[in-house]
Amino acid sequence: MDTAQAARMRAFNRIVTERIGVLDDEYLRRGRPLGASRVLWEIGDGTDLRALRARLGLDSGYLSRLLRNLEQEGLVAVETSADDGRVRVARRTAAGEKEAAELDRLS
Fold first, then answer.
1. How crowded is residue 47: how many other Cβ atoms within 10 Å of its Cβ?
2. Backbone angles phi, psi at 21, to 5 degrees
3. Which value, in Å, is the radius of gyration of the alpha carbons in the chain?
4. Among 5, 20, 67, 88, which residue carries the largest CB count within 10 Å?
5. Contact present, 71 and 78 (Cβ < 8 Å)
6. CA angle 41, 37, 51 (to 5 degrees)
7. How far apart are alpha carbons 68 and 16 in whole angstroms?
8. Order of strands, edge to edge, in the sheet holding 88-92?
9. What is the pLDDT of residues 45-67, one digit of tens each?
10. CA 102 → CA 27, 71, 78, 80, 98, distances in Å?
């Protein structure tokens, strides 16, 4: 890809992300950015934080901040795994399940 093609691709990506609201702090008008909504959706029925971090390609500090915010909203609970005390697991709360369903409906 030459420089002109790369510039056109970047311009296209900026337009698309702006139009679909990916960079807004209010993704789908739900009061949180896309990153936090994606983490909530990816948690599913519960997931090991290491696996979640690897699947999403996030560093541990950023994932911790996203999870802390979701916990404060009452959407997620982070606990120690019953099988291995060294492993932390995130699970959606009942409110988190409702919010994930609403995100699916809106998207």
1. 17
2. 80, 20
3. 16
4. 67
5. yes
6. 50
7. 29
8. 47-48, 88-92, 76-80
9. 999 999 999 999 999 999 999 99
10. 12, 18, 22, 28, 6
Structure tokens at 99: 């919010």
Q: In the structure, what pLDDT confidence band is assigned to residue 30 with cuts at 50, 70 and 90?
A: confident
Q: CA 15 → CA 18, 22, 23, 44, 51, distances in Å?
A: 5, 11, 11, 30, 32
C-alpha–C-alpha distance, residues 1 and 93, integer Å? 46
> What is the four-CA torsion angle of 55, 59, 60, 66, rounded to 10 degrees?
-80
DSSP the chain: --HHHHHHHHHHHHHHHHHHTTTSSSGGGSSS-HHHHHHHHHHTT-EEHHHHHHHHT--HHHHHHHHHHHHHTTSEEEEE-SS-TT-EEEEE-HHHHHHHHHHHHH-
Residue 12, pLDDT score: 85
- Residues 48/89, Cβ–Cβ less than 8 Å: yes
